[in-house]
């Protein structure tokens, strides 16, 4: 065929089911004749994940006749708010359809699949799809995790700097109170860990962990307070004991009014000092005083009765005229007890 001439090609299909036919040349250019339907090409997604929070993806397909439909899906959920652009080819045989998807992303969208699907009547319910996995870049997030919540003097301590970001953060940087670590021999940095071998009070302060990637920098702080080691007390055994008090009261009575009383309190030698309880010594003293007073009263009463021992006659027995003599006899009897055997008469 001479350039510019006409070529006639014939395609025969056995058991034809009215499927659309597509002609293409070695340059992969699709050719259509008469009113045959054009099959859309597989879509292509262009665009990338920028470090910002705004993303733009474009899905494009060509060679469809009539124009194909493009639909977007994110995590199998269709996105409705999209823009479409349909362009007819110069030979007015097929259409090129493109769609642009704009949306805001955050770090939770990292690794999410976005699908562009092309629907066309010639595809017989088997749509063509293209998929783009999102790659979201974001600044690191940092936190410090201590190996123990209650650091004590003399114990080791490990501080772990946990950082996440995309791209992955570079090796972390440890500082104390805004400067370098004061004791590198005892404060060892291994990867993301700061290992303090033996804690002491000079280690108190604010420790900072910094992580950096191509997007930005982030840091976290940990305030270290070293606590004293608690004193270890021996277990205390309480021995129960009974406190016994014995009170002995001795009363000596003589013929004279002078009486001596001796009271002694004997404590149980096994009683523990400092134990609280009733004051047995006080109780014993009170009992001794009561006994002493009682004995003195008995002694005085007996002496009084002994001095007034004798035979007493009433005035009726002696006669009314002797009444004055009876009074005199009673008075004289109190001062004359020379002979206890002598019989005395008193007139009342």
UniProtKB/TrEMBL annotation:
Keywords of this entry: Disulfide bond, Immunoglobulin domain, Membrane, Repeat, Signal, Transmembrane, Transmembrane helix
Highest rank taxon of the organism: Eukaryota
Residue span, Ig-like domain: 40-132, 140-225
Membrane-crossing segments per the record: 281-301
Location in or out of the cell: Membrane
Membrane topology designation: Single-pass type I membrane protein
GO (cellular component) term, any one: neuronal cell body membrane
GO biological processes: homophilic cell adhesion via plasma membrane adhesion molecules
Pfam families: C2-set_2, Ig_3
Similarity remark: Belongs to the nectin family.
Listed PANTHER family: CELL ADHESION MOLECULE 2, IG-LIKE DOMAIN-CONTAINING PROTEIN
Protein name: Ig-like domain-containing protein
Lineage: Eukaryota, Metazoa, Chordata, Craniata, Vertebrata
